Amino acid sequence: MRAFLECRPAVIRDVATDAQVAGELRHAGIHAALSVPVELQGGPIGTLEVYSEAHRAWDDSEIGALQAYAGVVASLLAHAVGAQVEQTLTRQLRVALAHRVLIEQAKGVLMERNGVDARTAFEHLRSAARSSGRLLTVVADQVVATASQPAP
Fold first, then answer.
1. Could you report the per-residue pLDDT of 49-94, keeping only the tens digit for each?
2. Which CATH number among 3.90.1180.10, 1.10.10.10, 3.40.50.1100, 3.40.50.1580 corresponds to the domain 86-147?
3. CB of 15 within 8 A of CB of 25?
4. Is the pTM higher than 0.85?
5. Are strands 32-40 and 43-52 parallel, antiparallel or unpaired?
6. Which DSSP state fits 123?
7. Among 35, 52, 62, 120, which residue's Cβ finds the most Cβ atoms within 10 Å?
């Protein structure tokens, strides 16, 4: 907890000397702990912790190694978040493109059917969506569906 709040390594050489964690850790058979913050975008997002069943004087090389590993964990998390964002954007763009194609088709139907220009056709779609409380894409889909039905 201290490593996260203070954004620096927290070293516990003997849990018996740290009243905040002594009971829980000793009950689990842990006598020493080392915690370092995992930082992303300039702030801590969690901690990486190592425990020992024996009292331990953590040296600078162990602290440095755990900090380096925390850096690797932060890098992996950053890449995972980046990939998630890219997937979300890709999905949104695909949906937007599909909707745009549908809206353009509906505009074409209205232009042909009513002899209006593209701007007027779009305004008709938008007005119909607003007045009926439906999404623009739902109205556009209905327009395209009725256009593709064979004449009686």
1. 999 999 898 999 999 999 999 999 999 999 999 999 999 999 999 9
2. 1.10.10.10
3. yes
4. no
5. antiparallel
6. H
7. 35
